[in-house]
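Handout, section B. The chain below has 429 residues.
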Amino acid sequence: MPCILACIPPHLLNWQGYKKMKRADIKRRPLADTALATLEPESKEYRELDSNGLYFRVKPDGNKSWQLRYKKADGKWSWLGIGGYPEISGQLARKKAQELLSDISKGDNPIITKQERKRKELEQNNATFEVLAREWLDTKKESWVQDTMTRNKGALEKHIFPIFGKRLYATIKPIEWMNLLKGIQQEKGIIEQVNRMRSMCRDIYDFAKVTGRMDYNPVEGIQKYLQQGKKQNMLHVAEPELPALLRAINNYPTMDVRIGLQLLAMLFCRPTELRQAKWQEFDLEQGLWNIPAERMKKRREHLVPLPTQATTLLKELQSYETNSEYLFPSRSDKSKPKSDTVFIMALRRMGYEGRQTPHGFRHIASTLLNNRGFDERHIEAELAHVKDGVAGVYNKAQYLDDRKIMLQWYANHLEEIADQSIIQFKKAK
């Protein structure tokens, strides 16, 4: 069926066998639904009167729309677009035209009143930025790990929603977005965080575009005018400082936090992966940790071979009865893992603020193992830097035997240099 007829009501589908109508064949006004649907375009644009100042415009390419002809306050005639057809039906167009003519009779500007009605319509549809953003966040539930969701949602709630949350998203201008984001950068000094928020807001508006709610993106291009931070690796100590750090960790007074930091250093997994780990993921007899796909950044299952030192630490931790499925449960709620700051604060208390982060253990391990000549493929596999495509999904246990040897060497090495550090310290005394 030709698309021009697609919107004809079912009871009219047999009208004249779907013949196109010439404007000379119009029999009555207001225009019948069949006439609206079948009016044939001509070589030039034309308008046909429908009713009391309301015209039906037909363009040579077949596009159809509604226009209202009205007299302005200065006595001159003008046109005001009401909307396209078939999106705006004849019945709805007549209703809108009557509302606008009523506004004109009261001395109101119909352009302004039309905008106000559109604004109210958007409000009635809950078309605020916060509603749109939360709808977009729902689309990320399957692709983001929980920590990413918490961090990004928190950033919007803290910095964006208090300012623009209750605003109609279609009314927020590009200059307002730029001023807000630049202001946060200058006031808070959070350069990269603001750039991430900008990226999220741009994606939120892209979501509105593809769902047919926006025609343009007011955040597009703003990155050119924001301060750009320098990309830096997560803070980590240099290799000569590593023994002292390991010794400080080994002497940390809180048992579960100590074990957590020791495992982070030894397994160089992402802090979130360890902090949210559950006992059911571990096979201590086989020496394997199976991290499920939903907890991995790349949403792919990851197997971690456990060196003997890690198994010993896990058994020690297991003896510490918590009645929780988590290795590191929250003190206030055993059904939840510890907060993402627990390991950060521990390193800070040891005097490593600005020098070492939990994530920085990954950089230490990568550098040290590469310098010792281990296969880069094995290191990258252990870091879960999975390649896209066939190579990435080929085998979830890729290089498992090789990685087991590598991690055991690394655990032995860390143990050795930590012990040496203690001996050297005692000798210095």
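Note. The two ends are 93 Å apart (CA to CA). Compare this with the example in section A.
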